[in-house]
Description:
This protein has about 525 residues and is α+β, with helices and mostly antiparallel strands. The protein has 16 helices and 13 strands.
Amino acid sequence: xxxxxxxxxxxxxxxxxxxxxxxxxxxxxxxxxxxxxxxxxxxxxxxxxxxxxxxxxxxxxxxxxxxxxxxxxxxxxxxxxxxxxxxxxxxxxxxxxxxxxxxxxxxxxxxxxxxxxxxxxxxxxxxxxxxxxxxxxxxxxxxxxxxxxxxxxxxxxxxxxxxxxxxxxxxxxxxxxxxxxxxxxxxxxxxxxxxxxxxxxxxxxxxxxxxxxxxxxxxxxxxxxxxxxxxxxxxxxxxxxxxxxxxxxxxxxxxxxxxxxxxxxxxxxxxxxxxxxxxxxxxxxxxxxxxxxxxxxxxxxxxxxxxxxxxxxxxxxxxxxxxxxxxxxxxxxxxxxxxxxxxxxxxxxxxxxxxxxxxxxxxxxxxxxxxxxxxxxxxxxxxxxxxxxxxxxxxxxxxxxxxxxxxxxxxxxxxxxxxxxxxxxxxxxxxxxxxxxxxxxxxxxxxxxxxxxxxxxxxxxxxxxxxxxxxxxxxxxxxxxxxxxxxxxxxxxxxxxxxxxxxxxxxxxxxxxxxxxxxxxxxxxxxx
Length: 528
């Protein structure tokens, strides 16, 4: 059977069909496909950038229909051949291509070369028909493993997914490719992402039970929706050589020590003197309890909201810090989060509770007199280190707060301030910190990765002037850079009220960390 090709103008050239496959056409380099290995064949056809593509399998990534109806409409039913002209766009399509006779002779030579290479094409077809899903690297946050035959998705299953699970009413598949131990479908999302996900997931469950897991994600290359189906066996969480509770307990004991040490200035100047003055650590007990209370409320809020959302959290690893007592905790998410709104609620719950309690205790510290009528003697310049704390101090203390004039304050101010600072550090929009998860839930994966890079750079610059920033950037870079594990459905935006809560957490963290730039004078601030 003959085909015809049009070279960017009025010239139409008949083409001969390859006897060893069902279709042969010319394709732009932007369309992926299985290609003949003979480069001479390509140069004989034309001297542009186009390639001859032999369609020998349904697994190629060219756009195609995902149900029988549309294939019938396009004249592409199995066993049939389309006789429509194939139009070729070439960079040299506007040049003179000679007359019809010379073009026909070129096509005859092309036909001869195709027949000569038929053995090679048949070998390629035999390899392609046996679909092997690439093992690749596992999805982020799951265990890397070798995929055997029992784990790979067979071709028959892929066909059922395309033709019976996905559809016009949910996700119209146009192409597919192996991806991370499963298969990635590209196409057009129909309707609301959340509803389409539910329909597809329900159909998958009816067809295959719990053998496979569906993800509806955003392709970072073109910001278009993609669907990923992987065997559930590939989603095994990482295991650690040391039991979680043992490691978390060890970190917790060290954190208790640093919380006590933080509130005993006499021991901070000489750390080794602790061994000779262990009894002095009890002096830091009240401050350690207040800061630990704020940390505890933070973590408990995470767990309560996570339980309500059906998200399983791991054991919290408290990170010790001799500067402020603790850097907070590292808490892993052990299962797959359903959607961005769930992640936002869990991530924002901890800082919101911690900020609320810390703020109340801070106000009480400014209002209540010290228990021993002496309290802690501080220089007012210390309040320049935080915009939030400095503003509240100026508002409540008024003329008492003057540059160069030491004053006595309730130590509760210092203890609550430490708790606020720990919550603020965890609210930095980077990696898998609470702030990083919040930024991902509100603005998506690409924006959160940019926030992470910017935060690490800013912390790196801040570490030139502040040792707390140095230790924190090291912690983020090596332990909590991410990436955040994929959610079941990452396309739907959270509700506006949850977005507002997340943004409030980020702003509160910023207010705590930014310095207070105004001088403390006798002028009374009327507002903050």
